[in-house]
Specification:
The protein is α/β, with parallel strands linked by helices and 351 residues long. The protein folds into 2 domains: 168 residues, Beta Polymerase, domain 2; 132 residues, no CATH class. The chain contains 13 helices and 8 strands. The strands form 2 sheets. Strands 1, 2, 3, 4, 5 and 6 form a 6-stranded mixed beta sheet that branches. It has a two-stranded parallel ribbon with strand order 7-8. It is elongated and about 80 Å long.
């Protein structure tokens, strides 16, 4: 007993001395993963990191006094929350290409569930920095350190937050009726996860159909969030100053579709007719899909745009970019005045 106590005290002191190192290591791994996913075009909800708290470390050592600190795999932890299940394999592929895995401690919790059981699912990867990265001076101090990276979907994350809460984590000990309801909740979340994946697959297939049709010159396709994005990707391909976003945080796609419809532009063919053949060469300054479409509608028919589609939906800011309008010799100032568009470039508009 005395030897275990001594071992525990040594472990606690060791972790207190190394806590900041593991905390920094977790943050570095988090930053690397976030950058890699961005470079690979994989959209995620979040990537977060943490070092195991010294209190949690103490509790584990007290429960398992003979455990060695090197056997505790989650001293540095990173959590990646993806949107749908199909993203999980993509994320794993990125991790395997850029980190060294400890295969003996890496696991998929879902394989531990029997086919008639429901419960917590997640992929846990135990990994360390690659040899190439460790050679860099800024990473050398992390040599031989391991991090546990958990990868899960939003709904798996939700279940983990509920199911692992101290109130519920011993759900098997709850009264049978409550335990049954608890399992039903788990099943509903799993069904929802599968349905999100199915719908995502249908959207991807629809996007492929749009690509095939437009490649064959068929633009008789209703404008919606998928077809519009696909078409804009086509006409702006190679123009780096165009951000593939519908406004800040990509949240104004419904707004611009409404504006297009009010202009009588309901199909890709209608939009195609107002696209100047030399458009790519005229885009000189940074813009995004939202600004580009508004400029195109104004160039096509400024009076109709402001009388029908504008609807007081935006104002002219100090840094408003009229570059494309100017390239086509379109002076918007008269329309701004005619339709009383608030113009914050002018001091009187601030009053």
């Amino acid at each position: 007993m005395g030897e275990n106590k001594k071992s525990s005290n040594e472990s606690l002191k060791w972790y207190a001395d190394n806590f900041s190192l593991y905390n920094e290591f977790a943050k570095r791994v988090c930053d690397i993963i976030e950058e890699l996913l961005l470079l690979n075009g994989i959209k995620i909800l979040s990537v977060t990191s943490r070092a195991k708290s010294q209190e949690s470390f103490r509790e584990k050592v007290n429960r398992m006094p003979s455990i060695e600190f090197k056997d505790i795999q989650d001293l540095a932890g990173v959590r990646v929350v993806a949107f749908v299940k199909s993203d999980l394999q993509k994320i794993e592929n990125v991790l395997r290409s850029n980190f060294d895995f400890d295969e003996n401690r890496t696991m998929d919790t879902s394989v531990r569930l029997e086919d008639n059981k429901l419960g917590y699912k997640s992929k846990h990867y135990v990994l360390k920095l690659s040899e190439d990265r460790i050679k860099l001076p800024e990473y050398n101090k992390f040599k031989n350190l391991y991090a546990e990276v958990q990868v899960k979907t939003i709904l798996q994350h939700a279940w983990a937050q509920i199911g692992h809460d101290s109130t519920y984590k011993n759900s098997s000990s709850l009264p049978i009726e409550i335990s049954r309801d608890f399992n039903l909740l788990s099943g509903l979340l799993e069904i929802a996860d599968n349905e999100f994946q199915r719908i995502t697959g249908e959207i991807e297939r629809y996007g492929d159909e749009v690509d095939k049709k437009t490649n064959l010159g068929d633009y008789n396709i209703a404008i919606d969030s998928v077809s519009l994005r696909k078409y804009l990707e086509e006409i702006t391909a190679g123009v780096e100053v165009v951000q593939p976003l519908f406004g800040p945080e990509d949240k104004y796609i419904s707004t611009i579709i409404t504006e297009l419809n009010l202009m009588g532009i309901e199909k890709l063919e209608d939009l195609r007719k107002i696209i100047p053949p030399d458009l790519k060469s005229k885009i000189k300054l940074p813009t995004n899909y939202l600004g580009l479409l508004r400029d195109l509608m104004i160039i096509h028919n400024g009076d109709k745009y402001f009388s029908s589609a504008w609807r007081n939906g935006w104002v002219v800011g100090e840094n408003y970019n009229f570059s494309l309008l100017n390239e086509y010799g379109f002076n918007i100032d008269s329309l701004i005045e005619k339709y009383s568009v608030p113009d914050y470039r002018k001091p009187e508009a601030l009053k």
